[in-house]
Design brief:
Blueprint: E1 11-14, H1 29-36, E2 41-46, E3 50-55, E4 60-67, E5 73-75, H2 83-88, E6 95-97, E7 103-104, E8 108-111, E9 114-117, E10 126-127, E11 140-145, E12 153-160, E13 175-185, E14 189-199, E15 203-204, E16 208-210, E17 212-213, E18 226-230, E19 234-236, E20 249-250, E21 274-279, E22 285-292, E23 298-303, E24 307-311, E25 329-334, E26 349-350, E27 355-365
Antiparallel strand pairs: 1-21, 2-3, 3-4, 4-5, 6-16, 7-10, 8-9, 11-12, 12-13, 13-14, 14-27, 15-26, 17-25, 18-22, 19-20, 19-21, 22-23, 23-27, 24-25
The structure holds 2-acetamido-2-deoxy-beta-D-glucopyranose (3 copies).
Organism: Panicum miliaceum
InterPro entries: Aldose_1-epimerase, Aldose_1/G6P_1-epimerase, Gal_mutarotase_sf_dom, Galactose_mutarotase-like, GH-type_carb-bd
Protein name: Aldose 1-epimerase
Length: about 375
C-alpha cells in the first residue's frame, strides 16, 4: 500500500491462495548479465541459537535456525541447499516476490488511461511479477550491520526497470527502486522490511515474502501437529483462474475461518478462495499465529499490509528441497490479488515521489 495514495478507511486483511508456478528465466541479455553478477550467501546471527542465511539471489531467505523447548536447534524454513537450485527452482522458496505478487487478471491493467500488457505465466494471468519476477534477480548487498563475525542486519537493493527501459521482461510502467532488509533482534525476532520508490511513472507495487515454514524443522515431515490461527474475518472469494470476484465475504461458516486458536488445517487443504479480514489501519498488527505441538516452537507474524495469504503448498507437487523435504506452509502478507483491476480494493498504485512500505515481524518462541 502506498503511503499517501488514496486509501480506504477500513482496510481488510487477506488470506489468499497462491499457486507456485514456474517463473522461467527471460532469455534476453539482461538475464545473462544478471547471472554474471556475484551471488553469495550471508549469515546473520544473534547468540548461539538464532541465525538465518540469506542469498542476494532474489533476496532469498535460505534458512532460519531456532531452538525448540528442549534446546534442540532446527532449520524451520523450506528451501534448497545451494544457490544454484534456487536459480533453477520454481517454488518461490523464501523469495521476495514482486513487482506485483499474486495474480493480475488477463496479464493486463489500465493506469492513467494507458493499458499495460504483462507477461502471461499463469494461464492468461500474470503471476508473481511475470516472466522474471524479483525472486529471479541478483540484488546488491548494501549494508551488513552488527560487525565482526556476527552481523544482525542485512540490506539489499535492486533497481527494477520498467517497460520503457532496456529490460522488456517485466513490462511494468516506469523504474522502481526496491530495498529489502533482514534484521534479527532479541529475544528471537526476525524483521523483514521492504520499501519501493517509483521513478518517472506511477506503477502498481505489491511485494510479498514467500517463506514456507515448518516449525517442526524443514525435514520433520508433514505439518500435521501445527495449529494455525489467522486473524482474518473476511476473505476475497475467487472466480475462474483464481481471480477475485471483488467481494469481501465473511469467513464465518466457510473453510477459511481460522480465527479460533489451535485449528490444525488439513496438510494439503485446497482453498479455492482468498480470505481477508477487516483492519482499521496500516499499523503493524498480528496477522497469524502458528504453533508446533511436537517441538513447542511458535511463530507470531505481525505486518502492516491489508492481507495475509495462507498457502498450504498444494502446487509444490514433487518439488524437493533440503534433504528431500516437501512439507511446509507459506504465510504471505500483501495487498489484495489483482487490486489494480478492482477499484473497490485498496490501491497498490505508487506514484513518483511516493514510497511503498511493507514491514513483517516474525516473533518466535519455544
Ligand atoms: C535444474 O533443472 C534441470 C531440469 O529440471 C535439472 O536437470 C538440473 O539438475 C537442475 N539443476 C540444479 C542445479 O538443480
Ligand atoms: C485464455 O483466454 C482465452 C480467450 O478468452 C480463452 O479461450 C482461454 O481458455 C483462456 N485460457 C486459460 C488457460 O484460461
Ligand atoms: C528503504 O530502505 C533502505 C534500507 O533500509 C533505506 O536505506 C532507505 O532509506 C529506505 N527508503 C525510504 C524512502 O525510506
Amino acid at each position: 500500500m502506498a503511503r499517501g495514495a488514496p486509501r480506504l478507511r477500513r482496510r481488510p486483511s487477506v488470506l489468499a491462495l497462491c499457486l507456485a508456478v514456474a517463473a522461467c528465466l527471460c532469455g534476453g541479455r539482461n538475464a545473462a548479465a544478471a547471472e554474471r553478477k556475484t551471488v553469495g550467501v550471508h549469515e546473520l546471527r544473534r547468540g548461539d541459537d538464532f541465525s538465518i542465511k540469506v542469498t542476494n539471489w532474489g533476496a532469498t531467505l535460505m534458512s532460519v535456525i531456532l531452538p525448540d523447548s528442549k534446546g534442540n536447534l532446527a532449520d524451520v524454513v523450506l528451501g534448497y541447499d545451494t544457490v544454484a537450485e534456487y536459480v533453477n527452482g520454481t517454488a518461490y522458496f523464501g523469495g521476495l516476490i514482486g513487482r506485483v505478487a499474486n495474480r493480475i487478471a488477463g496479464a493486463r491493467f489500465t493506469l492513467d488511461g494507458k493499458t499495460y500488457r504483462l507477461y502471461r505465466n499463469d494461464g492468461n494471468n500474470s503471476l508473481h511479477g511475470g516472466h522474471r519476477g524479483f525472486s529471479k534477480v541478483v540484488r546488491t548487498v548494501k549494508e551488513h550491520v552488527g560487525g565482526g563475525d556476527s552481523p544482525t542486519s542485512l540490506s539489499t537493493t535492486i533497481a527494477s526497470t520498467g517497460s520503457k527501459a532496456v529490460d522488456e521482461c517485466w513490462r511494468f510502467p516506469g523504474d522502481l527502486d526496491v530495498y529489502m532488509t533482514y534484521q534479527l533482534s532479541p529475544p528471537h525476532v526476525l524483521s523483514v522490511r521492504m520499501n519501493a520508490t517509483a521513478r518517472g511513472r506511477a506503477t502498481p507495487v505489491n511485494l510479498a515474502h514467500h517463506a514456507y515454514w515448518n516449525l517442526g524443522g524443514h525435514g520433520s515431515g508433514p505439518v500435521l501437529a501445527e495449529a494455525v490461527q489467522l486473524l482474518a474475518s473476511r476473505y476475497t472469494p475467487v472466480g475462474a483462474a483464481l481471480i477475485p470476484t471483488g467481494d469481501l465475504a465473511p469467513v464465518a461458516g466457510t473453510p477459511y475461518d481460522f480465527r479460533a486458536p489451535g485449528r490444525a488445517p488439513a496438510p494439503r487443504a485446497t482453498t479455492p478462495t482468498t480470505p481477508w479480514t477487516a483492519a482499521s489501519s496500516s499499523a503493524l498488527r498480528p496477522g497469524a499465529r502458528v504453533r508446533d505441538g511436537a517441538t513447542g516452537r511458535a511463530m507470531e507474524l505481525w505486518a502492516d499490509q491489508p492481507g495475509v495469504q495462507f498457502y498450504t503448498g498444494n502446487g509444490l507437487g514433487g518439488v524437493r528441497g533440503k534433504g528431500g523435504s516437501v512439507y511446509g506452509r507459506c504465510l504471505e502478507t500483501q495487498g489484495f490479488p489483482d487490486a489494480v483491476n478492482h477499484p473497490g480494493f485498496p490501491s497498490q498504485v505508487v506514484r513518483p515521489g511516493q514510497v511503498y512500505r511493507h514491514d513483517m515481524v516474525f516473533r518466535f518462541s519455544f
